[in-house]
Amino acid sequence: MIELSCKLPRHTFTLDIRLQIESGTVYSLFGPSAAGKSSTLHVMAGFENRMQQAYFSVDGQVLLQVGGKKTINVPSWQRNIILIEQGSLLFPHLTVKQNIYYAVNRHHQDELEKWIEEFGLAPYLDAKPKQLSGGLVQRAVLVRAFAKRPRMLLLDEAFSALDGPLRRTLQGAVMDLQKELGTTIIMVTHQLSEAQRMSDRLGILHNGKLLQEGTPEELMLHPHSWQTAKLLGYTHLLEDIRGQKFALHPNRVLLGNHPHLGPVLQGRIQRRFWYEGECRVTIKLMDRSVYPDDSNVEISVPIDTDIQPGEIQPFTTVHPPYFSHEFLISENILHIPESLGQGFR
Amino acid sequence: MKKLRLAPSVAILAGWLCTAFLILPFVSLLLHLSWRNIWSVWIESGGTPLFYSLWSTAISLCVTLLFGTPLGWYLARGQGILWKAIEILLLIPLLMPPLVIGLLLVYFYGPYGIMGHLLTHFGLSATNTILAVVLAQLYESVPYYVFAAQAAFSQIDIKFERISLSLGVSPWQTLRRVIFPLARPGLLIGFAMAFARAIGAFGAVIVVAYYPNTLPVSIWIALEEQGLPSALPLALLLILVALPLPLATVLWRRVHHD
């Protein structure tokens, strides 16, 4: 079990976060830029020293405790936690092979040679990093990290510089290795698709606060607040016939009248277009109060749907999440176990 | 179109003029030298000063490396106002005329200075000794090395340090295996500059250590006592000794890093 709680002043907010993560799982911190995601990873990796209060333990071993009676701060190089940052770098003065074997435990030599083959790095072992493409560099960075058999791997936007297909290939390779080795992975990303695809659980971070956490499915189906819902791709807040507020997600909509699945809306088709491989239409809602104040909503439709601009169509929002009056922003509503953050009391 | 064509020509001409301005005095030195008796002048007047120059420069460079490298590191990576203040203070010896440095050294390390008193207790003197030469060379050369080292360390992405540490490599090993190799080109340039400054140090040296004569001081004495023809062979000797290391450094950098 990984337990983290910390208070870290940043320029415009204080990162105030408490997490409990099951060992051997993949956990994502997802949120907009400057939400405190990278700082959280730096605290875990041992590269942050401005905490007011902090507690961090991995499988019962306390690696960091600040603000309590006793101060503990295990140095970064003794934590066996590897941080891979954006544009993650091979040492430019070493060859690919020297990079991969930079800190390796010789016991895992055979396994390492297997990974080098699997990741397609064998022909490039004697090359210098600047001779390699971005994808190959990232492969070598991952092999170098896994070769160390870390107890935790922290990925800070590690795939963001890569193109889509390559990113998916490497994500798959990392997931395979994670399953094989049981490494705990905590990743930071501002790409929801990446977080949802790779994670067992994910936490939504905004302005230094954890808004909500859960499995990708739990979050998608039951966002606790409108703030969370917006970050998960919900676009509009609408009222049903009883005056209750629910959120609209472009992918959780069916064309047609299906009242047993959720509220039915009606609108005029404005435009039909393609978005990230999906066919979408813009619909101007009729007789609805909408938040934000824009009655043009986008929804995904099957590609063979025969609807044209100007038509009036009913559509059903499928089991949408409802929000009570405190929908605007809810504070940290997670249950904090008593055992966590002893330094705070 | 005519204007566009003219612009590169003017730039090229300016480049050639600048190069000629810098190189021609050296050519003139070679033309005016009396090549027949150069060897005898070197043996008679150049041997001992050359020895003192090389010996004092070797010591001052060792001290520079030992203390200047950590200082360069902290100036590059140190946070807080203290390191910023030190950076500004270091500009003083860098910008001060060497002759003025010499005068300050006399007041501080001379027989009536604070450090001078202290050195006397240990049976040392910083006036007209090899120690005085080393001190003067240090004051003239250390800031050049420190600022070069600062620049060399600053341009290393801090992520490399984090990667190495998070891979479980200790800070000392990280310095040895990552930071120093990456900073080496910049450190070498700094070292070459410090060497050139130290071996050619004159203004501060002549104030605190007329004796033992270093090569630059010998050139001045020869000029004063015997005139230009006697000084030129020693000047050539100084150039021949001082130039190879900086030139080799620049060439090495070109071959390995460009």
TrEMBL record, chain A:
Keywords: ATP-binding, Nucleotide-binding, Transport
Full protein name: ABC-type Fe3+/spermidine/putrescine transport systems, ATPase components
Gene3D superfamilies reported in the protein's UniProt record: P-loop containing nucleotide triphosphate hydrolases (3.40.50.300)
Protein's UniProt keywords contain Transport: yes
Start and end residues of each ABC transporter domain: 2-232
Gene Ontology MF terms in the entry: ATP binding; ATP hydrolysis activity
Keyword hit for Transit peptide: no
Alphabetized InterPro entries for the sequence: AAA+_ATPase, ABC_SmlMolc_Importer, ABC_transporter-like_ATP-bd, P-loop_NTPase
From TrEMBL, chain B:
InterPro entries associated with the record: MetI-like, MetI-like_sf
Organism domain of life: Bacteria
Signal peptide: none
Gene Ontology biological-process entries: transmembrane transport
Residue stretches making up the ABC transmembrane type-1 domain: 50-249
Location, primary (coarse class): membrane
Residue spans crossing the bilayer: 12-35, 55-76, 88-110, 186-211, 231-252
Entry's Gene Ontology cellular component terms: plasma membrane
PROSITE patterns: ABC_TM1 (PS50928)
Membrane topology category: Multi-pass membrane protein
Keywords: Cell membrane, Membrane, Transmembrane, Transmembrane helix, Transport
Subcellular location field: Cell membrane
SUPFAM superfamilies: MetI-like (SSF161098)
Family label: Belongs to the binding-protein-dependent transport system permease family.
Official protein name in the record: Molybdate/tungstate transport system permease protein
